[in-house]
Structure formats: structure tokens, C-alpha cells
Amino acid sequence: VTRLLMMGPPGSGKGTQAGILADRFGIPAISTGDIFRANVRDGTRLGKEAERYMKAGDYVPDEVTNGMVRDRLDQPDVADGFVLDGYPRTLAQVEYLDDVLADQQVKLDRVVELAVDVEEVVARLLARAAAEGRDDDDESVIRRRQHLYASETKPLIRVYADRGLLSSVNGQGTVDDVAGRIAAALGAPG
Ligand code: ADP
């Protein structure tokens, strides 16, 4: 059983690396962004609620996000572990996740931070916008998401470092380069 969090700014490659880890460990990758996008696509109530925040590059309110994550972590496929991508992003979410895991009497094994240069990720996201046309990939919204990450989410890395759970990995380079560094970091303690 392996329980992992992926942290890093928008565009850092968290989702890609979460997928690689999920395959390797045979556990689900859970992306809050993907769950929100699926709900927007399906026109659910949750999707309608989340959509305006996502379009603006703002965080969906904790009350909405937290309940959704609890429901997902209560599913049976998560019993063998999970890779969470894009959650938690606020201190309230960290505390909520602590409660969910405590209720399940389980613990996180490791938090992987992908460290990347902001200008590099903005360039990547602009390229993705051109290729895929995601709604929240225009330049002002991209900058807004980077700013929110720096102010709201980056400080959480310290919280996990203080718990002895953090592995910080250089996120620059090819997908394979980064996957190799993560594998090495997970193999080694600390
Ligand atoms: P990115 O990290 O590249 O912005 P994601 O796909 O992870 O993209 O998330 C897309 C959007 O979904 C975010 O900008 C935000 O509006 C919403 N979202 C995802 N995860 C969370 C979360 N943990 N808390 C609040 N909002 C979230």
C-alpha cells in the first residue's frame, strides 16, 4: 500500500508523473482538476459550482473540494493506496485530509514536490493552451494560477517537510528524466 501526494505549480508535470506512479504501484491517480473537469463536462451540480472558479483560475472553495475528495477516498479501489494530484492546495485542505486519513486509520507515505522555474511552466502551459484549448490556459489566468500556487499552496510544502514526508525533485527535463528522479527519491528515505 502506497499513499502519495504530488505537489508543484500548475504546469510542473504533476499529472503526468502521478499517472506514471499510479501504473508502477497499481494504484489510482486521483486528480481533483480532472474530477472537476469531468463534472463540468457532464453538467453536474458540482461541475456548475466549480466552473466559474476554474475559468477564473481561482481555487474552488474548500467546502466543495473537501467533500468531493472524501467521497473519492472512500471508494474501495483506494484501499491499496493512491496518488493524489492537485490536493491539498490550502491549509484547510491539509487539515481535512489529515482527518479523512485518520478516520481511515491510515497515513501518507510520501509527498513529492516537483520543483520547476515559473517562466518555464508558464511557457509549457501556453503551449498546452495552443494545443488543447483548455479554458483556464489563457495567459492572465495562467499567471493567476501561478500566483495562487505561490501564495496559498507552496507554503504547505514546509508543513510536510516538517513532518519528514517531503521528497523534493527537480522537475526540469524530459518526462523520463523526472520519472527517474522520483523513482530514486522514493527508493531512498528522506
Ligand atoms: P493546474 O494545477 O494546472 O491549474 P488542475 O487540473 O490541477 O490544473 O486544476 C484545475 C483547476 O481546478 C484549478 O485551477 C482549480 O480551479 C480547480 N482545483 C483543482 N484542485 C483543487 C483544489 N485542491 N482546491 C481548489 N480548487 C482546485
Largest sheet: 5 strands, parallel
Q: Using only CA atoms, what is the Rg?
A: 16 Å
- As laid out across the biggest beta sheet, the strand order is 2-3-1-4-5
Small molecules bound: adenosine-5'-diphosphate
Q: What percent of residues adopt helix (DSSP H or I)?
A: 55-70%
Q: What is the helix/strand order?
A: EHEHHHEHEHHEH
What is the arithmetic mean of pLDDT?
Answer: 94
Question: Termini distance?
Answer: 18 Å
Sequence stretches where pLDDT stays below 50 over 5 or more residues:
none
What general outline do the C-alpha atoms trace? globular
* Count of separate DSSP helical elements: 8
Supply the helix-strand structural class: alpha/beta
Q: How many runs of DSSP E, i.e. beta strands?
A: 5
Name the beta content range.
5-15%
General description of the model:
The chain is an alpha/beta fold and 190 residues long. Helices cover 59% and strands 13% of the residues. It has helices spanning 14-25, 32-42, 45-56, 62-73, 91-103, 118-132, 139-162, 175-187; strands spanning 2-7, 29-31, 81-85, 110-115, 166-170. A five-stranded parallel beta sheet has the order 2-3-1-4-5, sandwiched between helices. Helix 1 packs across helix 8, helix 2 (32-42) crosses helix 3 and helix 6 (118-132) packs across helix 7 (139-162). The two termini are 18 Å apart. Bound molecules: adenosine-5'-diphosphate. Adenosine-5'-diphosphate is lined by residues 10-11, 32-33, 36, 53-54, 57-60, 65, 86-87, 89, 93, 136, 145. The site of adenosine-5'-diphosphate has 18 residues, from helix 2 and helix 3.
